[in-house]
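Q: Could you write out the predicted structure for this multi-component system? I'm mainly interested in how the pieces pack against one another.
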Amino acid sequence: MSSVIAAIHSALSKAFSALWGLLSFASPGWQLVVVSVVFGVIMVLVYGRVSNQNAIRKVKEQISASLLEVVLFRRDVRISLSAQLSLLLAGIRYFLLAMGPVLILAVPFALILGHVNLRLGARPLAPGEEAILAVNVKKGTDLKSVQLSAGDGLAVVGPVRVPKTSSVFWRVAPQKDGETPLRLSIGSNSAITEDVVSGPQSTTPAAGIFLTSSDWPGQILFPNGGSGQSLTAAPFETVELTYPQREYSFAGVTMSWITAFLVISICAGYAGSRLFGISV
Amino acid sequence: MSRVSRRTFLQGAAASVGGALVPGVFTGGKAPWLKNAKFGRKTVVLGIDGMDPVLLRRFVDEGAMPTFKAFMEKNASGVLSTTMPPQSPVAWSSFITGTNPGGHGIFDFVHRDPKILLPYLSTSRSFGSSSGISLGDWNLPLESGRVELMRKGRPFWSILEERGVPSTLFALPANFPIVEDGGVQALSGMGTPDLLGTYGTFTLFSEVDVPDSKHWNGGKLVRVRPVNNVFSASLEGPTNSFKKDGSAAAVPVTISRDPWDAIVKIDVCGKQLILKQGEWSEWVPLTFEFVPLFASVGGMVRFFVKQVHPTLKVYVSPINIDPMDPTLPIGSPSHYSAEIAQAAGRFYTQGFPADQKALAMGVLSDEEYFHQANIVIDENFRILEHQLSKFDDGFFFYYFSCIDQNCHMLWRLCDPKHPLYKPDASPELKNSVKLLYQRMDDALKMVLAKVDQNTTFFILSDHGFGTFEREFHLSRWLVQEGFTVLKDPGSKEPGDLFDQVDWAKSKAYALGINGIYLNMKDREPNGIVTPDQAQQIKDQIIARLPTAVDPVRKQQIVLSAYDSGKIYSGPFMGLAPDVLVGYNRGFRVSDEAVLGKFPLEVIGDRTNLWSADHCFEPSLVPGVLLSNRTDWKQGSHGIWDLAPSILSSFGIEVPPEMDGKPIQKA
């Protein structure tokens, strides 16, 4: 499973890197708008291909007809009740027809969400701002052997070693703008390096989990966006630096990227469905 | 009279605030409309609670306060008469309204409801929802709870607002809950509760028991036990008014301790903190769920890791109202607190931010307390800088509580004659009061940068300060003198909330810091004193109080006592104590006597670390007044003269209901 997911993420990473190359001139907010619109339209096109459009059209017509019947014959109890039953059955049919395509779309949706989150979900740390670096290692690893060394300009407090969960935590805070390297090692054999990103709000750190191995749902949602280092042979399980969540402001309303993404992509998808004649 | 223990009373007060929190979940404040026009004139007031004229002069003469020194040399300065009693809520209410206490109805920190003889905090009262639908263990409130400002009278900024003068008021005491006003930006100060509805209740997570923790007032001990160095605990928040059993909402807290080093990781409400021993966290926002996914309230705390090994002790600050998402009305407009927090960071919103109770109960050491007090001051400075940067017109008031709060607790370390003086305290602590005054010197420097030729500027304090070494059990003195009669005179228990009083025989009782009430027929539930007897009893008390002498120090305990009918006037005199007590310097009522306990002795040593006070005879503890307006009228000036002076600085006529007169000539 891990290798399949890794291959998909690798392909997606290339696609997203290409897309981000095109969008490099834009601010994160505009990048989010473009990605959401593109995603919404693509999703509706895929939905059009994987769904039974004729059946959906028919059931939607049936729903409209039943609604009209309820309104027109509201004084006739028998017809009204019959229309409501018909409406209920049509609603169930519509739900079942939509469920299959939605489940199919959920897989790429989750994969793509991970990549968008990687690029737009977090913001860089401001100088002096603190973040938690969390490391999980394989059970049985000597936690005292997990070491962190950081470059100049990175204040480090820790570690806190938690044997119960085989975890080690540090508090890190960049002291200046830029990318400050840190190096994690276990004994003399295993080591990984990563940069802690600090700087202007326009930059986008490769946020979240740097490295992950065993947890495959985690692998889907949190693609390896850091150094791309393989962990399969290392005692590391996950290495995560929690950057602050980036917030987006549209028309004075502040929201997380996922809210903005859903709203914009749904609107774009709806517009796309009208444009391409797809019933959703 | 109902029999309610002190603990039940405090729980009830907390529960009603919990109830009042409920509607905050559903209701939003109305959008404010602020006037934008420039007024042209500016008046700035720096309010420094408890700044003492004698100490100020001493530190200025020592060269420790160069900005004050320079200001006092070029401008006007003097003492400012305070109210009777010289308590902050009383004095600041007189500042706000320009009246004596009879005009604003605040006579003490603590008032009593004469119908049930239960005390309540004087400046605000909260009322929970009184009707609801029961569903199993749940209760669905059908109406809003509310918090009510008990300070009456017209605030001067309301008159300014009528004339189009915009006002900014930061942390002015006796102004919670904030009443939204279109032309006023305001944040509430002293009197603002924590999320539990108290004046501050901390939590201590401790691996070991702490002696006397059951008697803590203002703090809770939560025992925690480790499983492989991980502690799971629960931080109790406000009372959940949706629950029939009145239980508290809580959030889980996990503390992971490093097995080898003195450092912990704390997980709470999705936040992760790593703190070394002796380190304070930043503010951590919390969400207390009342009904999952339906109703919740937000608050915030700071953590302090007191000890990691061999046993864990983690202090959690009182749960403050989060200024980013205020659950209770602490700002006008309603988003004002969030604006400040966004610009200057989250800050203590509780009215008494320095955790005096944690120090008094030994949970924080002197050093730890002083560090926390300085966190508060640092926050105040950040906000002051931000607020000054925005101010360019109208009226501006900024308040510092640090001198008052910290003199109460740290005076003993700075006064070698104080019985609780510690010769081995650090030099910083021995100079702590001076250091606090020096921080006010820095504040003045910041404010003066904003004072120009068109600005009228006042610096004032509401009262001075003095040592507090002997505590007077006023309630026991009234028993000794035959004014209060106990059901069992031989009882060795102090009782609580007057539960020992034989009301059928008692003529008077003490409640609050400076007050004595008569047990009036048709006012108190079992009153026996008729109106024609009242004056005689008052006269007896007033005559005998100054004769009380400390048998150890051979000093007069009470310098003077006052008939409230002779010193107050105004529409709210009915709330006043009948007799006001003016203690001698060094003496004050005991904490026990404030809330209706009856210690066995009349007088004893003050052993609480609250070692200085100001609730004395007012002439002993005047405040300070400094101004760049040097055209002061002859004679003494009182804090009630400030509201008229502020109005006058804008050329506004002083309304007749104000007792005060402008300090400056026309």
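A: Regarding packing and overall arrangement: The CA atoms of residues 57 and 185 of chain A lie 59 Å apart.
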